[in-house]
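User: I've been going back and forth on whether these two constructs are worth ordering. Before I decide, could you fold them both?

Assistant: Sure. I'll take them in the order you sent them. The first construct and its structure tokens:
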Amino acid sequence: MSDPNSRVLAAVNEVIERGPEVGMQVAAYLRGELVVDVSAGVADEETGRPVDADTIFTVFSATKGVAATALHIQAERGLIDYGAPMVKYWPEFGAHGKEGATVLHALTHRAGVPQMPEGTTAEQLCDWEGMVRAIAALTPEWTPGERTGYHAYTFGWLVGELVRRTDPARRPFGQFVQDEICGPLGMDSFWMGIPDTAESRCARLINTPAPAPGAATPPPDALIFRAIPRDLSTTQEVFGRPDVRRACIPGAGGITSARSLARHYAMLAGLGSFDGVRLLSEERVRLVSALQTDELDAAIGRPIRKGMGYFLAGPDVTGAVGPMGSNPAGFGHPGAGGSIGFCDPDAGLAVGIAKNRMLAPMSPDENTVLKVANAVREALAVTA
């Protein structure tokens, strides 16, 4: 292959120069080796600070894949059972008819509580104990297990509290992730709650533009607007707050470099092993990346192929292929605005893409992340 770094950088520069991207990092591992590592554009339009290798980005729901891996580590250790009711580990969660919700329901967005507690503020997002109490007290939108609907924010507290309660050391979830995932895998720039020293490295978000006149949008009472309330939307005003950046919000608040995100998926591409470290068994990775549901998602409004905490690659119901590629064995998790981490174990490929321009492309032609992900595969001679 000829200089994959240059070929991917050219693709990144193109989506920045032609618009609408502003700043982006891309990293890719192939069979455990870092083969793409590029940065381009502007991290902060107000100051003109450029994106470089030290820049870190809020990647929103791309955080969920790492949170899911934390739970799978506990399952690997025999501390948690996917089929067990959540109340076995978290008795308070059974309130108001949720006693039948299982760990697997939480991982597959079937637990029935995609909605955020009414009136939650940005300050309250930062209060772990307060959030898990409020979520445990929710009345489910449906009987757990009956349907799937994207738990956009609540997923993180469901998974994180299950991990915390099954951790013999009872570590805060963000610390568990640092100790059990980031440290062993050398993910030196991934946090669920940054240290003060990392603040100056954060890219400034550029909010999603308003929909064009006449564009199709969900109705005001759509479930997605209760899963992601407008006052807590994925904006600079909320997720750029110093207190939110320092909080552990594992459904949407991860802050990382593309390289650290890609290292997580390099472990999964290696079927649980990376750089001499094994976190999960091969059998576990194959289990958690297998299709669990491809039903209509009640919050997103279209079918989503879901594994156990990860979204799955492959064509959607229309035949369209997204950034994770066409191989159904691939998996990962996208985040609002377009950041994404994913892997294709068959090819030994792991990719992290982090960016600061919040976009919601309406078609593949508008999808800049798809263009960049395809450039990675083309540069590495990996089948799309």
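The second construct, handled the same way:
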Amino acid sequence: MSETEGSRFKRILIKMSGEALSGNDKSGINPAVVKSIAEEVKEVHDRGVETALVVGGGNIFRGSIGEKLGMDRGTGDYMGMLATVINALAIQDSLEKSGVPTRVMTALEMSAVAEPYIRRRAVRHLEKGRVVILSGGTGNPYFTTDTAASLRAVEIDADVLLKATRVDGVYDEDPEKNDKANKIDDIRYIDVVKRELRIMDLTAITLCMDNGLPIIVFNLFEKDSILKIISGERIGTIIH
């Protein structure tokens, strides 16, 4: 892995859920939370680390919700993809106000608000020092944003996929339901699959495993967590 100005990584992709943008609210976008995330991404960017983001849309709409309401699964998934574009634009606005050059790219064509996702163009933006926010999932229904994040990370040749969550790593049980759950610091992809640890969906984990892309699962809301990771501090859980 390449090093950049004290960082152990040259290029990273950060995957965060849409719910992260709502903070303590149940839905929607919390401006203070978005600003906080943008400030941390700026610190990483200022270190010279090429940074891409993939954000979910669950704070606005999730495809599985549409299915429960009787919608066609494909329709619900497309609505969820549109929600990721809304979140991407919110993050872009906050980053740009912080002086960070950005580009929003989307797998769904909507030229008025975002560039179409083209792998070579995304890589070029990163090389020019722009934070690239990748939205619209994979552009196809039946795939999660975790899978989209894994796919994009492999495509742009990221050194690592940083999976931002509400907890400080991977546990053998859900720590929000069982306070006696044990944290796992280091685990192999295949063991995640065998133990059915619900960190990311099976497609996402398998894609990373097949391409040797390490995943670090960490608490997004721990202060300077991303900065600590790129500086070489061992926090969260590494899947490799």
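Notes on the second construct follow. The chain has a mean pLDDT of 94. The longest helix spans residues 73-97.
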